[in-house]
Specification:
Length: about 280
């Protein structure tokens, strides 16, 4: 069997890779502008990727340093047997773990890699209706500090549960992410915060960013408080997200879910939210 060889010229590979990624996003229901915007995100740093082939297929890999750890990334793998080479390359570069992004889901050669996170999306109903008995209002500015503290604690717990980072690394990531997304806090342009109420009590909150991608509102958080779960509010929160997307002039709702949250994934499956990207990883 021919050995894998690293090649400098991406020309013979690049076009096919881009078409495979675009095909995955189109199959997931993305509009052409959205599919191309997602492709642009997937190609970030592509010129620095290491590309190898044995003449029968391609492997594109990269070593990154983030959250205090060295991570090997497998960006493309067209022949399953090349996985061993890609993992060995990552290990030789000093990676502590290997991560793969799968467009449109479908584990393929990486079925034994645990799911760490998913990006999901679906088109919002033309006229979303809020469930009976549930009202939605803007979160008040004086409520924001308490909401922020609760939201950050939940985010850190989600990251740790996904099995990727230590609690300290998760806290550091949370601090960076919140500072990046909400540089002006409650008054950050393009962001909206909601409180969901039923029977006079706040049962959950929502945080969305409008125009995140072409025609897409990103649901940073659609949270039902633990003491109010099991009452159907999870589905109601999805409806609130769609309603918020339309309020912001967008056509679709997108969000991220961390691995290890099977209840949430089951809810999203049943409510028709398609997997756009799935991230899986293993430690080395």
């Amino acid at each position: 069997m021919t050995e894998m060889e690293i090649v400098a010229d991406q020309g013979a590979w690049r076009g096919g890779f881009e078409e495979r990624v675009l095909a995955g996003y189109r199959a997931a229901g993305c509009s052409e502008p959205l599919a191309r915007a997602l492709l642009e995100r997937a190609l970030k740093g592509v010129d620095g990727w290491t590309l190898a082939t044995d003449g029968t297929g391609w492997a594109a890999v990269e070593l990154t340093h983030e959250n205090g750890a060295s991570t090997g990334r497998i960006h493309d793998l067209t022949v399953p047997r090349h996985r061993a080479w890609a993992e060995r390359w990552c290990a030789e570069q000093g990676a502590e773990r290997v991560l793969v992004r799968l467009t449109g889901g479908g584990a393929g050669a990486f079925a034994d890699y645990p799911v760490r996170a998913q990006n999901r999306m679906r088109a919002a109903a033309a006229e979303p209706r809020l469930p009976a008995g549930l009202t939605v209002r803007r979160l008040r500015e004086e409520e924001y500090p308490r909401w922020y503290a609760r939201e950050e604690a939940s985010y850190v717990a989600d990251i740790v549960r996904a099995g990727v980072l230590t609690p300290q690394q998760a806290q550091e990531k949370s601090d960076r992410d919140f500072a990046e997304q909400l540089p002006q806090g409650y008054l950050t342009p393009g962001h909206a915060f909601y409180a969901m109420e039923a029977d006079g009590a706040v049962v959950g909150t929502g945080w969305v960013g409008h125009g995140f991608l072409p025609g897409v509102t990103f649901g940073f958080s659609l949270e039902v408080y633990e003491e109010h779960r099991g009452k159907g509010y999870g589905r109601a929160a999805m409806a609130v997200g769609e309603w918020a997307a339309r309020q912001g002039g967008d056509e679709a709702l997108m969000f991220n879910v961390f691995g290890g949250n099977e209840v949430a994934m089951g809810l999203y499956d049943s409510t028709g939210f398609t997997v756009l990207d799935e991230f899986r990883s293993i430690g080395l």
